[in-house]
Design goal:
There is one protein chain. It contains 20 helices and no strands. By secondary structure, the protein is mainly α. It has two domains: about 210 residues, Hypothetical protein af1432, CATH 1.10.3210.10; about 190 residues, Orthogonal Bundle (Hypothetical protein af1432). α3 packs across α14 and α6 packs antiparallel against α7. The longest helix has 24 residues. It starts with a helix and ends with a helix.
Amino acid sequence: MPRTGFVWLGIKNPETVAQHSFRVALMNWILAGKVKPKLNLEKIIKISLIHDLCEVYAGDMTPYWGLLPEDPQKRKEILKRWIRLPKKVKEKREKVKFNKEKKSLERLLKNLQPKIKKEIMGCWMECEKLLTREGRFTKQGDKIETLLQAIEYWGPDLSSPVFGWWEEVEDLVDNPILREFLGQIESRFYERKKIDRGLEFLLKVGKLKNMPRTGLVLRGVKDPATVAEDAFLLTLAVWVLNKEKKLNLEKMLKMALIYEVSEVYAKDQTPYEGILPKDIKKRRKILERWPRFSRREKEKRFLRDYQSEKKALQRLTLGLPKNLEIEIIGLWDDCKRRLTPEGNFVNQVYWVAMMMQVLQYWKEDKKFPIFGWWEQMIEFIDEPICLEFMAELKKKFS
C-alpha cells in the first residue's frame, strides 16, 4: 500500500506503509535508547510496528483528506504547506478519522486471540491518544521518519513540499532527544555536515525500502516485496506468533528488525547462488525445487554468506555508539547462527513468514513455483509454533 501523501505529490513508486513502519521501528528503537528516564523499548517497537495497521481497511488518511481540489497543480500548491484549521474543525476531523481507523483495526484483529488483540489495540491507543511516554515518543518519531523520507525524495529545497513536513514536526515534537535528532537532520541536509552516525545509519538502511527480494525477482514476480517490507512482516510475525513466555521478546523484535540490514552492502543471497544457468528455461526448472547439497557443501556456503554479511554489517554499524554497535552485531550473530532459543525462533519465523508471502503470490499466479519452498520448510522447520502455523497455511491455501 503506497503512502497517500507521496502519491498525491507525484512520487513514482513511493514508499509503502510497511516500508515506512519498518524504519519507524528501527529509528525509534535507536533514539529511544538515549531517553532518560528509560522508556520501554519493547513497547516502543510494538507501537511503531502497528501504528498504521488500521490502514489495511481505513486507507492512509492524511491530514489533508477531504480538503484538496481535483486540479493537480492547485493540490500540489496546498500540499507544500502544513494544513492550518480552526481548533473546532480540527477536533471534529480528528474524531471522524479516529473512529474510522479504530473500527478498521477492530475488524483486522477480530479473529486473533483475546490477549494479543487487546495488546495490539492498547498499543495503538497509546499512540493515537498519546496516553503514555512510549506512545507520545513513537507518534513524534513517526512524523520525523516521514519528514526524513520527504527530504530524501525532494532534497532540502524549502519551495518543495518538504516545508510542510517541517512545519508539522516543529509543531508536534517536544522530546529533547527527538528535537536534537531534528537538529542533526537540519545540519546534514541544509549545512551539509555529516556529524551524526545514527542518522547516516538510518539513511543507509532506508535503501532497503527499494531493494527487491532476489528470490522473487528470479521467479519473475512483478513489483516484488522489498527487504524492508519483509523485515516489517518478520518483526510483526515474531510478536504475534511468540507464545513462549520464557523467551525474551524485546530481544527477538530487535533481531527481526536487523536480520537483513547487512544487505545495504551485501547483496540479497539466495540458496541458488552460483548454480543458476543463464538460459531462462533451465533456470526456471531449477527454481522449481529446493537445491540439494551435501552437508559439507551446505556448511561451506553458509560460512561464505555469513562472513560476507557480517563484514557488511560491521561496515554499516561502524561509528555508531559502541554499545549499540556491539548490540546490533551480537543480535544478528545470535540469530544467523541460532545460538539461543530466541535466535532460533526468529530464524525459523523468518522462513515461515517468507512462505506465507510466496503463497500469496502463488494464489494470484498458479504457475509461480511454490514446491521448492515447501521442501525447504519441511527440511528446516522444527519449532512447534512454526509447524502449527505451516499447517494453517497449508489448510488455507491448498
